[in-house]
Structure formats: structure tokens, C-alpha cells
Design brief:
- This protein has 393 residues and is of the alpha/beta class.
- Helix content is 38%, strand content 11%.
- It has an eight-stranded parallel sheet with strand order 2-1-3-8-7-4-5-6, with helices on both faces.
- The protein is globular and about 55 Å long.
Length: 393
């Protein structure tokens, strides 16, 4: 059997994960990113694998059975009143995570996708896998939260622990702390969770501080790198590159799972970080290298947050796949910087629907961006936090 370099895992039902027309978490992000890859001649049908949806046995690796039952009942077109009365105790029917018809089916399809990707890697069918619809990292065993119903990454990690006894390094680059995954494995020394994010002093979910290090046998296998608001590319990448390299070298994982929320971009409406597309080019490259250095190349990437769905998310997620597949287009992007242009047919196809002018290039020309006040102070504050975060490595 020939091992594939990378597979793209996608279930059509993931497109049904849509809370309402006004909610910032839109499945249109998937369509835009996949179409950008196709327009760039970087993705074809032979690379796409359709997984099975997660059944209750898989979902129960993380979630309580009563929560799964509540999600299923609240997924009906017209849920019974008694279920609506219980919805908020399960973190559902809130402003962030409202119920919607087909919610269980869509969320189960996403959970199944991440498990399928993890299993394909561990079976040696592929070295790398990208499950763009995944990354719902805020869901807990007994409740949904932060736009997340089932925590696909945590379910996949639990599956890897049960089936393969694998040591798993989970890397979360979303601007929001990966709380649901962290707390799920807070006492497990065989699961190392790492999250770089805007400090919880100002941003949901209000956690992810450097003193959160794990508990009991898991103490020392949890790392958080909270950065200050208005952090820019240089400081973000300095913090990320040094800290994650030391974590990976110390932990020695069997597989890396990375979550690629792309809401630390300056254009994202739900955070206060001021980074450009540069970090979304460089972070996947760093993770890719670490996977080969420490995990035999085994790397599963999932999506996550990202709420400028037109100008940011398609480029950021496409860059993950380009890096994962060592696509020759990266040479043009790296060599020409912000002069490397996006496919004109993609821009022409979507511009009429976009409320903003679509970007012409893969990377951002930041020369016209106003410099951040207090840049040096922010950089030094981040360095101080980084030193504390990795002091024992």
C-alpha cells in the first residue's frame, strides 16, 4: 500500500453547520476556501475523502449521553417545549450557540471527519490530513459553547488514546483559548495541549493563563501562550516559534493535531490582535517541520474560528493545505510575498457576493497599515509571558 502524502477530509453535511443567517460562524467559509484551492489547481477530487459521521459510541468518548440526547432532540425542525426549557443548561439556545434544525447531524459529521482523519494517519494510509470543517474546540462533555456543539478535536484525541495509546500533541492557534480540549485532557500526561491566543483578560473564554499547567499526573503537559491585545506578526511568531519548538521537543508526540482558527488577523471582527496573513503562512510551516522532526510526519490539521470569511479565512486555510502538500505554488508565494496574486477567476466569481473588496494577493501588504501604539511595550510583555510559559522546558 502506498502512503499518501496528504488527504483532504470533507463531509457534505458539514455545510449544514449553520446557526442562522446572521451568525458569524458561517459554512460559506468552507465553500470559499475549497473553491480557492480548486481555482489554484491545488485540490482535486482524488485527494478528497468523505468520512462517516460519528455515531453515539464515538461521541461518548467525550460527551455525556444526556447531552447528546439533548442535541439530537433540539435538532428537530420543531423541538418539543420540554427540550427548549432544558436547552440552556446544556449551553444551547444561547446567543453564541443557538439551536438549529439538523444540528446533531451536522456536528456529528464534523466529529466523524476528525476521527476518520486521525485513524487514516495512524493506519499509515496517509502522512498528513486536513479536515477543514473541524476545530470546534469550545464544546465540553456536558454542554456546547462558543459556536461549538461537539468537540471534534477532543473526540479524535480520545479515539487516538483508546485505539492506539498514542501520545498526542494538540496545538491550537485560534485567537480564542482552546479551553474545551485543554480541560478534557487536563490530567492526562499522554496528551499535551498548547494554545497561543489573545489573553483571556479581554477575550472569550476568559481562560488560558500561563498558570494552567495541568493537574495530577497531567501536570506539566499543558502550555498556554496568552498574548496582549494588538500583538503584531513579529511578536506573535517570536512567541509561537520558540515556545512550540521547545514543547514538541520535550513531549515527543506520536502525532500532532493542530487547530488553525484564523481570527488573530487584524481584519477579524471578534478579536483585538493585529496580525497579517504572514502568520498563517509561517505557522503551518513550523508545525509541518515539527511533525517530521518529532512525530514521524504524522500531522492532522483542523479548521476553527475565523470571522472575516471573505478576505481572511479562504487564504489562511488554503495556505495550510498548500504547506501540507508541499505545493509548488508556495515557491511563488514565498518568493514574491504580497505580489503573489490569487486566481482572478476566484475573485471574479465571489466579488459580487462579498461586502468587502476581495484581496488580490495571498499575503498582505502591511506597508500601508498604521503602526500600533505601544508596539515595544506589547512585545516585551509577550516576551515576559513566554519566558514564564516555557520556564521548565
Amino acid at each position: 500500500m502506498k502512503t499518501a502524502n496528504a488527504v483532504f477530509v470533507h463531509h457534505p453535511d458539514a455545510m449544514r453547520y449553520r446557526f442562522n443567517d446572521h451568525h458569524p460562524f458561517s459554512p460559506m467559509r468552507l465553500e470559499l476556501a475549497i473553491d480557492l484551492l480548486r481555482a489554484s489547481s491545488a485540490l482535486d477530487d482524488r485527494q478528497i475523502v468523505m468520512p462517516a459521521s460519528a455515531d453515539d459510541e464515538l461521541l461518548c468518548l467525550l460527551h455525556r449521553s444526556d447531552y447528546i440526547q439533548a442535541v439530537r432532540q433540539l435538532s428537530a425542525d420543531e423541538p418539543l417545549p420540554q427540550w427548549y426549557s432544558q436547552a440552556q443548561q446544556y449551553g444551547l439556545q444561547t446567543e453564541d450557540t443557538p439551536c438549529f434544525p439538523g444540528m446533531h447531524e451536522a456536528a456529528a459529521a464534523i466529529a466523524g471527519g476528525s476521527v476518520h482523519a486521525a485513524d487514516a494517519i495512524m493506519q499509515g494510509k496517509t502522512q498528513h490530513a486536513f479536515h477543514m470543517a473541524g476545530g470546534l474546540h469550545h464544546a465540553f462533555p456536558d454542554r456546547g459553547a462558543g459556536f461549538c456543539v461537539y468537540n471534534d478535536a477532543a473526540i479524535a484525541i480520545a479515539w487516538l488514546r483508546q485505539r492506539y495509546q498514542a501520545r498526542v500533541l494538540y496545538i491550537d492557534t485560534d485567537v480564542h483559548h482552546g479551553d474545551g480540549v485543554q480541560w478534557a485532557f487536563y490530567t492526562d500526561p499522554a496528551v499535551c495541549t498548547y494554545s497561543i491566543h489573545e489573553t483571556g483578560k479581554f477575550l472569550f473564554p476568559g481562560t488560558g493563563y500561563v498558570h494552567e499547567r495541568g493537574n495530577a499526573e497531567g501536570f506539566g503537559s499543558c502550555y498556554n501562550m496568552p498574548v496582549e491585545p494588538y500583538t503584531e506578526d513579529d511578536s506573535w511568531l517570536e512567541c509561537f516559534s520558540e515556545s512550540i519548538a521547545r514543547v514538541a521537543a520535550a513531549f515527543k508526540p506520536d502525532i500532532i493535531i493542530s487547530q488553525h482558527g484564523c481570527d488573530a488577523h487584524a481584519l477579524d471582527p471578534l478579536s483585538h490582535i493585529h496580525c497579517s496573513m504572514r502568520i498563517y503562512r509561517e505557522m503551518p510551516a513550523i508545525i509541518h517541520r515539527l511533525a517530521h522532526e518529532h512525530a514521524g510526519g504524522r500531522w492532522l490539521a483542523v479548521g476553527g474560528g475565523g470571522y472575516d470569511i471573505w478576505r481572511v479565512v479562504p487564504r489562511a486555510w488554503a495556505l495550510v493545505w498548500l504547506e501540507m502538500t508541499d505545493h509548488p505554488l508556495l515557491g511563488e508565494i514565498d518568493g514574491r510575498g504580497f505580489a503573489a496574486t490569487l486566481p482572478a477567476p476566484w475573485r471574479e466569481r465571489w466579488q459580487a457576493l462579498s461586502p468587502d473588496l476581495l484581496p488580490e494577493s495571498w499575503l498582505d501588504d502591511t506597508s500601508s497599515w498604521a503602526p500600533m501604539p505601544r508596539r515595544d511595550i506589547i512585545t516585551e510583555q509577550n516576551r515576559a509571558i513566554k519566558a514564564i510559559a516555557i520556564q521548565d522546558l
